[in-house]
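Duplicate of #3305? Posting structure anyway:
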């Protein structure tokens, strides 16, 4: 059977490609510069085997020049150039990559400097130009050729004049339309911006004549303008340098040049991995919380480079949410890019890198916590909240990774403490980790429910942020020790006091009466095992504590989740005696006392009084 070739309608294909592959037109410049860099790299590789060819690094450069009058943008390189046949094959055939072929022919396994592989990047020029002229002279030929095309009607090739080996590409920019202007690609600042963004780390200098103004010699107010050739890219990616060559200032400079933040980095992590996946990364932990950090506007992610060429400005997949404060970049030669280089084909490599990065950040933070506590405290102040969200989110999937990075206020220490610190200080008879919640350390320290635990000499973690208790509940335990709130019904303290406070039958009847008075407000009334000097306290039975109720109520999608409140009374307090006296003798007084005790308990918990006017009236009744 006769086998037929597919016929490609090149014109249509080119049109489709030009208009659908790339999401941003500015990319054309990245593609042409990458081609120029590849062409110079090929000269380098050629010089390794060709004795007649000397590769002198400083002879090689890429020149960019705009001509506003002619509305042209020209790129010139001193690379390997193309013969007539190569022009035809490489620029006349879509998806034919001379660079990929070069890599294969020369068996360049570590040919990681060569960027091109798909054979389409060049055509990105037609997104901004309606006519492209390429004059090229190959290192293997004395004759130069001009390749020309309008991107729709094929191309022409004819002999041309060119003194030096290399390639000059001239783009005749499209006319400005109503919605689109192409003039921006003639503006110096714009070209500089695009080059800096995508091609900053191309290894050869990208040069442009730029207009500079200087004060005139004899006057400070008058300026003269003149042209100066400037190199626009930094060329050497600092992440490829050896760590020992770099100073802290170099990293700060990089952080600021890249505008990762307006602050200074608190810490940097320089990674060079050469294993199952090869990559370099420079990661930063900023000093300050970005103003929009805890808002929806904040976008996490690291810059992603493939061979020094920017692929993505914010690759979110590279950092987990709980480390979303980390800024920086990753460069890898092992990424399977898609044709536009804007995305990755499949993200196995990316996942590997992300996993690796996660553990690097974690271990760096652990080291900081251990070795430089002051710095860690600073970090924790800025981003600790995010770590706690990390413990809570995803149903606690990451809690093991994060639990050792958490810090909390403490009843016994005048500083934030880690869970490991706490456990190391636990008393011999202590089986649980105690915590108390409230708006501030000062307020928690005064809470009646902390009395008993504190009296036992047990340390109490003070949870002051809304997310704290949710994170603790998600952790459930640390090092085999369960967390327990000082407000919980059973404090797990075996004590004789328990026996002391057994409830008598008479008290039970009195509590039922109180429950009746407080219908809908409390689930139960009972004597407290934990109160020492205070008369009353509002406990919560069940999983939802009063602090959690407060947080949930404040959320926009308030689910009306309520804690099961229990009024606990101190049986040893004088107030309890007064209450007992009123019970059965003076119903009005008994109701008054009950309501007042309940209101006091609400106030201690930081809960709003249901009826402040009624409360003051009750107070007055007691006073007169
Ligand atoms: N400035 C140049 N000097 C020498 N050869 C070039 C130049 N520009 C392009 N070429 C040749 O043309 C081929 C096609 O270029 P094109 O940009 O379309 O694809 P590519 O660079 O190979 O791959 P990619 O689509 O991944 O960028 C290149 O592989 C290269 O052989």
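Output from current build:
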């Amino acid at each position: 059977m006769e086998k037929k070739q597919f016929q490609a309608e090149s014109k249509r294909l080119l049109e489709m490609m030009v208009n659908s592959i790339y999401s941003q037109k500015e990319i054309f410049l990245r593609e042409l510069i990458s081609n120029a860099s590849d062409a110079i790299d090929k000269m380098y590789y050629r010089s390794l085997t060709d004795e007649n060819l000397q590769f002198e690094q400083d002879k090689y450069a890429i020149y960019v020049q705009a001509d506003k009058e002619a509305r042209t943008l020209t790129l010139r390189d001193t690379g390997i150039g193309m013969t007539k046949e190569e022009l035809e094959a490489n620029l006349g055939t879509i998806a034919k990559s001379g660079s990929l072929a070069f890599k294969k022919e020369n068996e360049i396994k570590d040919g990681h400097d060569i960027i091109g592989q798909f054979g389409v990047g060049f055509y990105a020029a037609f997104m901004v130009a309606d006519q492209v002229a390429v004059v090229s002279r190959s290192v293997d030929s004395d004759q130069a050729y001009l390749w020309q095309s309008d991107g729709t009607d094929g191309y022409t090739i004819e002999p041309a004049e060119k003194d030096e080996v290399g390639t000059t590409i001239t783009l005749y920019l499209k006319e400005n339309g109503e919605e689109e202007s192409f003039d921006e690609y003639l503006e110096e600042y714009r070209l500089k911006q695009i080059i800096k963004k995508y091609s900053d780390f191309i290894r050869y200098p990208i040069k442009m004549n730029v207009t500079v103004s200087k004060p005139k010699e004899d006057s400070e107010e008058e300026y003269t303008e003149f042209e100066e050739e400037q190199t626009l890219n930094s060329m050497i990616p600092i992440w490829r340098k050896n760590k020992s060559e770099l100073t802290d200032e170099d990293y700060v400079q990089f952080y600021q040049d890249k505008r990762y933040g307006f602050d200074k980095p608190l810490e940097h992590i320089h990674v060079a991995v050469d294993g199952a996946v090869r990559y370099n990364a420079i990661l930063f932990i900023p000093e300050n919380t970005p103003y929009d950090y805890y808002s929806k506007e904040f976008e996490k992610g690291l810059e992603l480079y493939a061979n020094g060429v920017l692929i993505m400005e914010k690759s979110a997949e590279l950092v987990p949410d709980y480390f979303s404060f980390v800024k920086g970049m990753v460069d890898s030669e092992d990424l399977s890019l898609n044709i536009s280089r804007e995305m990755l084909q499949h993200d196995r490599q990316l996942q590997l890198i992300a996993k690796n990065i996660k553990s690097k950040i974690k271990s760096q933070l652990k080291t900081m916590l251990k070795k430089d506590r002051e710095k860690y405290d600073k970090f924790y102040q800025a981003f600790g909240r995010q770590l706690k969200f990390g413990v809570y989110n995803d149903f606690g999937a990451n809690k093991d990774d994060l639990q050792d990075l958490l810090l909390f206020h403490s009843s016994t220490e005048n500083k934030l403490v880690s869970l490991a610190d706490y456990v190391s200080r636990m008393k011999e008879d202590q089986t649980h980790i105690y915590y108390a919640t409230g708006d501030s350390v000062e307020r928690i320290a005064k809470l009646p429910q902390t009395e008993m635990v504190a009296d036992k000499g047990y340390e109490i973690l003070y949870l002051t942020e809304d997310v704290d208790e949710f994170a603790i509940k998600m952790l459930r335990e640390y090092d085999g020790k369960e967390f327990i709130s000082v407000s919980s019904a059973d404090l797990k303290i075996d004590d004789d006091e328990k026996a002391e406070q057994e409830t008598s039958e008479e008290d039970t009847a009195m509590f039922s009466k109180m429950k009746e008075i407080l219908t809908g407000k409390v689930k139960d009334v009972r004597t407290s095992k934990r109160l020492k000097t205070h008369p009353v306290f509002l406990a919560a039975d069940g999983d939802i504590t009063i602090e959690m109720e407060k947080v949930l109520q404040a959320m926009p999608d308030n689910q009306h989740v309520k804690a099961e409140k229990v009024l606990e009374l101190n049986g040893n307090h004088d107030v309890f005696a007064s209450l007992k006296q009123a019970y059965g003798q003076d119903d009005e007084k008994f109701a008054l006392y009950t309501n007042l005790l309940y209101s006091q308990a609400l106030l201690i918990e930081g809960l709003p009084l249901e009826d402040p006017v009624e409360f003051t009236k009750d107070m007055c009744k007691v006073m007169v």
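Confirmed duplicate; merging threads. Residues 31, 35-36, 39, 77, 79-82, 90-91, 97-100, 116-122, 167 surround adenosine-5'-triphosphate (CB under 6 Å). The first strand starts at residue 62 and ends at 67.
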